[in-house]
Amino acid sequence: xxxxxxxxxxxxxxxxxxxxxxxxxxxxxxxxxxxxxxxxxxxxxxxxxxxxxxxxxxxxxxxxxxxxxxxxxxxxxxxxxxxxxxxxxxxxxxxxxxxxxxxxxxxxxxxxxxxxxxxxxxxxxxxxxxxxxxxxxxxxxxxxxxxxxxxxxxxxxxxxxxxxxxxxxxxxxxxxxxxxxxxxxxxxxxxxxxxxxxxxxxxxxxxxxxxxxxxxxxxxxxxxxxxxxxxxxxxxxxxxxxxxxxxxxxxxxxxxxxxxxxxxxxxxxxxxxxxxxxxxxxxxxxxxxxxxxxxxxxxxxxxxxxxxxxxxxxxxxxxxxxxxxxxxxxxxxxxxxxxxxxxxxxxxxxxx
Length: 352
Ligand code: NAD
Ligand code: DAU
Fold this sequence. Notes:
This protein is of the alpha/beta class. Helix content is about 45%, strand content about 15%.
């Protein structure tokens, strides 16, 4: 097996930590460099199990700092990049769009420039893999699914920044012949997700008997995939994806928010020994998210047919495992909800 030197960005975050774990454990002959700024969303506690592995190195750095990114490429001679680092929460992008432009757009271009410089003259065996989102395709109103060739139509500052980064990836492939591959995934859920996102936030609030803030009427639809299945798909795209191609990733698993929330409530009632229906009483309808996309739904046939990937878990099993993980890792939750979290929560929800 070829020794590879792989830079994974955002590996202390939710999805990145599962990708880093999979690569470190599955490919002992690869060296995995995990670059992360450790923002509020980055947490080294997510990956303590692999922190001493001989094929793993953590690098604290900010993608926006072009000089340090260039220096790191020179120092470690990365031959591949799996780029996950991003500002990822739609609500925060509505409050502070510029931060999303800096990390998601400028940060991505800084990485592309560093790869272009190091790899110029010899692109053999090189790969820049960009991990993106289904939100770049916009919002579905009249049925149908997002396909790889669905026109881009981003509706939030977050999705506009991710769409922009996708365009830069393709532009660098076309202009400088950087070997790239992209994937666009639907909503992930599972262990280690920061409790600003719907599922861990609601699990934590139910546990603490706090209101469950449902945006609008709870009719928006999301397509949910267990995070480990996304990490497995990233492994397949990295090793088997065709250069220049895009792969949509999803589990054909659509839920309206309110139906999903009711599943979480009844799972929590069961696990906590509460009376059936107890947690649903916490549901509180609040002011909708500005510009709230109605529905996302991924057609994942291309990755299933071309690369042989398929989800490993049924949704009920995934939710059960997820709730168990949060209930068994209360210390993790307490740590990430200490400090600035209370301020974030007040700013986001007090006036809704
Ligand atoms: P996350 O917010 O949990 O983690 C992001 C990580 O990036 C954190 O560890 C953070 O410290 C790091 N980071 C942020 N800014 C940085 C910077 N300037 N320099 C270096 N590191 C920085 O995000 P996530 O949910 O794990 O998402 C990972 C990627 O997958 C993102 O690109 C996101 O757009 C994409 N994605 C997410 C989902 C989802 O449902 N969460 C679905 C599809 C695609
Ligand atoms: O589709 C992929 C995207 O999924 C990723 O690119 C993003 O990084 C990720 O954050 C996620 O975006 P969403 O906006 O869909 O996820 P979020 O968990 O924020 O919200 C899910 C749905 O739940 C959405 O319709 C808004 C609603 N919601 C969310 C929160 C936080 C509520 O009703 N109440 C809430 O408090």
